[in-house]
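Support request from a user on the community tier.

User writes: "When I paste my structure tokens into the form, the page sometimes reloads and wipes my input. The last time it worked, I copied everything first. Here is what I submitted, just in case something in the input itself triggers the reload:"
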């Protein structure tokens, strides 16, 4: 899977969402999260992020390794909805606890 990391927090450019062919990039309150089971590893999202927040899981920079778990665990209570657009009302009020606890980022 691909992973969204810290540079997305409080930025949420959303360019990635338009590129994803399977609509597996879900919008949280402070960042977006890639569904690990729905992502087909096409890689289309990675080059369009203007702040370079997106990485293939094995290529996530060391200081952001925790974001793998943040992306995966964001979906613990959501399961596999099969599409981000229809979930936006619900997911955009949520964040992984690690993200929710961060002070303002990337301002
Ligand atoms: Fe975030 Fe970059 Fe997408 S800032 S919303 S990962 S385009
Ligand atoms: Fe979508 Fe990016 Fe995965 S475009 S399929 S989230 S690699």
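"...and here is what came back when it finally went through:"
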């Amino acid at each position: 899977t691909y992973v969204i990391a810290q540079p997305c927090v409080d930025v949420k450019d959303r360019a990635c969402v338009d590129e994803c062919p399977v609509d597996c990039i879900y919008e949280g309150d402070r960042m977006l999260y890639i569904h690990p089971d729905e992502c087909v590893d096409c890689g289309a999202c990675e080059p369009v992020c203007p702040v370079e927040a997106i990485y293939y899981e094995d290529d996530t920079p060391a200081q952001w390794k925790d974001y793998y778990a943040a992306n995966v665990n964001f979906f613990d209570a959501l399961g596999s909805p099969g599409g981000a657009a229809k979930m936006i009302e619900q997911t955009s009020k949520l964040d992984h606890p690690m993200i929710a606890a961060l002070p303002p980022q990337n301002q």
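Agent notes: The reload is a front-end session timeout and is unrelated to the input. Residues 66-73 form the longest helix (8 residues). The longest strand covers residues 2-4. Escalated to web team.
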